[in-house]
């Protein structure tokens, strides 16, 4: 081997040793570097994902779709401006119902639909778990917001019917303030009297909601006047469908009230039109409490004060579980605070006799102590303070003791009293 070949061999051997040393070093450090690099890449990915979620969620609604609606509910989706989308069809259904049954104006309806979009995307399955609210207009479904939703079906039809019932009864102030109202005034009325928000509440998103309402009015061609009414006429397809106002089969009773909603020994615990009669907080009925009554048993029974027909049966956060009977004299009698819906033992459309057992005393809704809240309206199903047609139970119930009637149109807490046998006829 000459000198040049020897040098070449030595150089190759040295290179081989260097390569081997490098591989050993890489192997030695690799078991530390590879996990570190992978961890770095993974952490970077998570950070990017979090930032993306935050950016994408800034303008998102605070509700989530529980995907568990009952009945034949169609999953709501699609651009509400697209006539073929299920959201558009749901809104059209609501618009038609509000127009046909409540005679709301185009501005009234546009306001209601726009607020439905703001609250839930007009999705009957939407739920906000943190506030225990649900549905198109995010009704309280238990917890801090009460339970206006009750057993309402998670469908567009069920929730629109609930809205119509409330607008005619517990939330009729909404319709009163929508009468001849502009688009903005209609938005204000719905937010304040139906949603329970103050005019300055940031949840209203005033400018955004007003802009949406203008679009809604245009898309659905809501260019017509209205004549809002909380009366319970026989217009077809309304929330009180099934209520038979034909009382021709109600016997020979004159229909005038001469009975009481309770039997036996009782106290009047809340007066009219204020709790103390002439003073105190507003109270749009009279509270009757049978002595010793619990929420079950005969002592808690509630009786119809007249022949009539059941025209509404529902629940809300103020009246609890309640039933309304249209008496044969044309008045509407309200019986509130039953323990449960099942405790109301009559059903919508059923004809009744004076003195018939209809419900039980309870304390659901805004109530203290077991009792029945009785109210009467000579014109319509509307029982909020100062509702048109409200009359004093003292003027209507001829069997009410004079000691409980300190003046014209007044009822004051008093008792105990005992119903007369003649008052209990038929019970």
Can you offer a commentary on this structure?
This protein is α+β, with helices and mostly antiparallel strands. Among the domains are: 134 residues; 160 residues, Glucose Permease (Domain IIA) (Distorted Sandwich), CATH 2.70.70.10. 32% of the residues lie in helices and 15% in strands. It contains eight helices and 15 strands. The strands form three sheets. Strands 5, 6, 8, 9, 10, 11, 13, 14 and 15 form a nine-stranded antiparallel sheet that branches. It is elongated, with a radius of gyration of 33 Å. The C terminus is likely disordered.
Short description:
This is LytM protein. By secondary structure, the chain is an alpha+beta fold.
> Radius of gyration, Cα only, in angstroms?
33 Å
Number of helical runs?
8
What would you say the CATH architecture of the domain at 265-424 is?
Distorted Sandwich
Report the sheet with the most strands, covering strand number, pairing sense and barrel closure: 9 strands, antiparallel
At the first level of CATH, the class of the domain at 265-424 is: Mainly Beta
Q: Structural class, from helix and strand content? A: alpha+beta
The sequence of SSEs as H and E is HEHHEEEHHHHEEEEEEEEEEHE
What integer is the average pLDDT? 78
Query: Distance between the terminal alpha carbons, to the nearest Å?
Result: 131 Å
- Given as residue ranges, the uncertain stretches (5+ residues, pLDDT < 50) are 50-74, 229-258, 423-427
Strand content: 15-25%
Approximate shape: elongated
């Amino acid at each position: 081997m000459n000198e040049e070949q020897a040098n070449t061999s030595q150089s190759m051997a040295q290179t081989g040793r260097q390569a081997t040393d490098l591989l050993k070093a890489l192997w030695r450090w690799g078991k530390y570097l590879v996990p570190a690099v992978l961890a770095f890449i993974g952490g970077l990915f998570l950070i990017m994902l979090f930032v993306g979620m935050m950016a994408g969620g800034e303008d998102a609604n605070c509700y989530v779709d529980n995907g568990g609606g009952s009945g034949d509910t169609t999953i709501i989706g699609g651009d509400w401006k697209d006539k073929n989308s299920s959201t558009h069809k749901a809104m059209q259904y609501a618009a038609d119902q509000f127009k046909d049954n409540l005679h709301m104006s185009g501005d009234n309806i546009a306001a209601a639909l726009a607020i439905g979009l703001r609250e839930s995307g007009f999705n009957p399955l939407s739920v906000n778990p943190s506030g225990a609210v649900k549905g198109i207009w995010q009704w309280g479904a238990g917890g801090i917001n009460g339970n206006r939703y009750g057993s309402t079906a998670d469908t567009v039809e069920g929730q629109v019917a609930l809205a119509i019932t409330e607008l005619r009864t517990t939330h009729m102030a909404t319709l009163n303030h929508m009468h001849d109202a502009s688009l903005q005034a209609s938005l204000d009325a719905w937010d304040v009297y139906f949603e329970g928000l103050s005019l300055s509440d940031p949840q209203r998103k005033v400018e955004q909601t007003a802009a949406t309402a203008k679009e809604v009015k245009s898309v659905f061609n809501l260019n017509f006047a209205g004549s809002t009414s909380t009366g319970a006429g026989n217009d077809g397809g309304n929330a009180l469908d099934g209520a038979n106002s034909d009382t021709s089969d109600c016997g020979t009773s004159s229909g005038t009230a001469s009975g009481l909603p309770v039997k036996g020994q009782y106290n009047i615990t809340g007066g009219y039109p204020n709790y103390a009669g002439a003073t105190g907080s507003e109270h749009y009925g009279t509270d009757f409490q049978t002595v010793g009554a619990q929420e079950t048993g005969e002592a808690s029974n509630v009786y119809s004060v007249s022949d009539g027909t059941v025209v509404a049966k529902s629940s809300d956060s103020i009246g609890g579980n309640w039933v309304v009977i249209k008496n044969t004299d044309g008045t509407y009698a309200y019986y509130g605070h039953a323990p449960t819906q099942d405790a109301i033992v009559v059903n919508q459309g059923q004809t009744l006799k004076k003195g018939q057992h209809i419900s039980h005393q309870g304390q659901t809704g805004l109530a203290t102590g077991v009792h029945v809240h009785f109210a009467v309206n000579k014109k319509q199903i509307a029982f909020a303070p100062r509702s048109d047609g409200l009359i004093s139970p003292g003027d209507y119930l001829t069997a009410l003791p004079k000691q409980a009637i300190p003046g014209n149109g007044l009822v004051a807490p008093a008792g105990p009293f005992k119903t007369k046998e003649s008052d209990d006829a038929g019970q």
